[in-house]
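[step 3/7] fold_predict: job queued, chain A
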Amino acid sequence: MAAKDRYSSIVEAIFHGRYEAGDVSVEFRREQITSVALSLGMAPPRNLGDVIYTFRYRRPLPTSIRATAPAGKTWIIRAAGPARYRFDLVSDIPLTPNPNLAVTKIPDATPGMVAKYAFSDEQAVLARVRYNRLIDVFLGIACYSLQNHLRTSVGGMGQVETDELYVGVDKQGVHYVIPVQAKSGTNQIGRVQIEQDTAVCADKLPSLVCRPVGAYAVDSDVVALLEFEEDDSEIRVANERRYRLVPPEAVTADDLARYQRRIPAGTG
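[step 4/7] structure written:
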């Protein structure tokens, strides 16, 4: 049986084995993946964590699980402690780029050698964002990359992972911490990732203002940046911009004039 089919069968069995109509959360332990696989007559996956990771970040939960959610709601998998997880019913709010947003051209400062050999994955997105200082441009503060691919533990969640962590300072001297999640292809940033990023900031750098950001590779030369915030216990998009990385000469006088018209009166 293909890994995807096996993963779906295991997760469905775990969920439906504990779920009752009206439940808004269903807890389970990681070792149940092994016991459920054996009960289904399957060889347990070698990497138990990959089963969880697949349905948290790579693809939707199986249809039979999603079908139990009322209209406007969806199931997600949250960490509930070391080797513990929980299906939670939450509002179905997409955290994806707006395709109708205007694009801003940015002179591409990516080193030629990096551009030539970059892979088309999340790390390539992060590299282009870093070299072009897009976090600075997007948030309007001076930002510095503190650490890539941060793995750490947070109380009540267990091990969590952040693609890149920036720190920044504004003109008033306020310090910020900016966790960045990057996605390419059809992958989407999920609510769980933003919640974990916020928890990492609160745990490791509690005195700094946390501003979570998502970076999407919309096209080969277009990056969408989204800032997230918590609103009424929901994760929502607070700010969004699209940047097209181009040769310097591709930024025309007409482009610059159009960008100047975006400046609110009295702030230019």
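[step 5/7] annotate
The mean pLDDT is 91.
The chain has nine helices and eleven strands.
exit 0
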